[in-house]
Structure to design on (313 residues):
């Protein structure tokens, strides 16, 4: 066992929670894994898949005696879960999460915890558009970023415990403030998802083009938007409701740039279009060079196969 976790409790055994459970088991990061989910059907699947030593719907029973508790529920539910588990935490137990938004999560969780239970927020920038305990896999976090946003005065030993877990899962850990995280993720993830939801919604509503044509001719770029727009509705609703300011700020800038593009098209300004498309191509190459995406045609996706894990949420 590495990483120093004796009893690891995971609340919410969806894509992320079940991937942590699988990874912790595969890489021997905890002596004992406890799975907690409000959904009895999920707990049944966890047992059938053998993802944890103990699986329960009772948060109080589940977190008792745990050294590290990771909240893997939608961002809108973390405050409620923190309130439920707080009285049952062992003194010194470290609490973490995986939420795609950080400032709102810190505000929702911290007030419930006692001084001995340090909160070390985390966000693994890895995922797929699938949900539930069957969708997770141990290598989801391999070579992906995991961003930690601890308070400045957080106990370094608690931060180290969470960092060691993520490194053990194969992630590359970086630390920043919750506010900076939310702004970075608004531009790299949240607004791109909003654009995908919007374009797919627009295409679905276009009366001159039939639904079947949209599906039939979707290879031309639209298909990749549909993959993003298939992401979990609850999770994404919560992201936009809790990262409102940063999303609106980036969206304002996006709208200005879109107007400039419309103007370039209207006035036949090919140079402006070519300049932008050249700059954006360089960004793609930079992402590939950092090992965060494949340069293979069609995003390395075999036809009909499950898409590779991509940096999401
Ligand atoms: P998911 O597959 O939908 O799983 C969430 C699980 O949490 C479900 O089993 C859900 O049960 C359970 N849950 C919801 N509310 C609960 C509560 N109050 N108490 C106990 N369990 C509860 O979601 P996910 O994709 O793993 O996402 C979980 C978190 O990871 C979110 O905060 C998200 O922002 C973050 N994240 C997601 C991705 C991604 O790409 N998916 C990437 C990075 C981070 P029910 O089915 O009964 O609701």
């Amino acid at each position: 066992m590495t990483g120093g976790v004796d009893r690891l409790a995971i609340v919410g055994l969806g894509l992320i929670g079940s991937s942590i459970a699988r990874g912790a088991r595969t890489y021997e990061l905890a002596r004992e894994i406890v799975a907690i989910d409000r959904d009895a059907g999920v707990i049944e699947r966890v047992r059938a898949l053998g993802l944890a030593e103990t699986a329960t719907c009772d948060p109080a029973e589940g977190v008792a005696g745990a050294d590290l508790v990771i909240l893997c529920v939608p961002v809108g539910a973390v405050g409620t879960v923190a309130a439920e588990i707080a009285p049952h935490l062992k003194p010194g137990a470290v609490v973490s999460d995986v939420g795609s938004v950080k400032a709102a999560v810190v505000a929702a969780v911290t007030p419930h915890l006692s001084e001995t239970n340090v909160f070390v927020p985390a966000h693994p920038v890895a995922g797929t558009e699938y949900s539930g305990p069957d969708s997770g896999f141990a290598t989801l976090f391999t070579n992906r970023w995991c961003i930690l946003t601890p308070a400045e005065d957080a106990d370094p030993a608690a931060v180290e415990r969470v960092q060691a877990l993520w490194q053990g899962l194969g992630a590359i850990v970086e630390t920043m403030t919750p506010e900076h995280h939310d702004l970075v993720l608004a531009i790299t993830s949240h607004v791109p998802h909003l654009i995908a939801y919007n374009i797919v919604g627009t295409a679905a509503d276009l009366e001159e083009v039939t639904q079947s044509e949209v599906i039939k001719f979707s290879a031309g770029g639209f298909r990749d938007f549909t993959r993003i727009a298939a992401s979990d509705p609850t999770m994404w609703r919560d992201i936009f409701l809790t990262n409102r300011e940063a999303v609106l700020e980036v969206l304002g800038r996006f709208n200005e740039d879109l107007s400039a593009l419309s103007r370039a098209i209207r006035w036949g300004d090919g140079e402006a279009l070519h300049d932008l498309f050249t700059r954006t191509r360089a960004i793609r190459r930079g992402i590939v060079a950092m090992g965060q995406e494949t340069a293979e045609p069609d995003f390395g996706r075999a036809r009909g196969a499950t898409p590779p894990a991509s940096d999401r949420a």
Notes: The chain has two domains: 5-176, 180-289. The mean pLDDT is 91. The longest strand covers residues 5-11. The pocket of NAP is lined by residues 11-17, 37-39, 42, 72-75, 77, 80-81, 98-100, 123-124, 127, 131-132, 232, 235, 312-313 (CB under 6 Å).
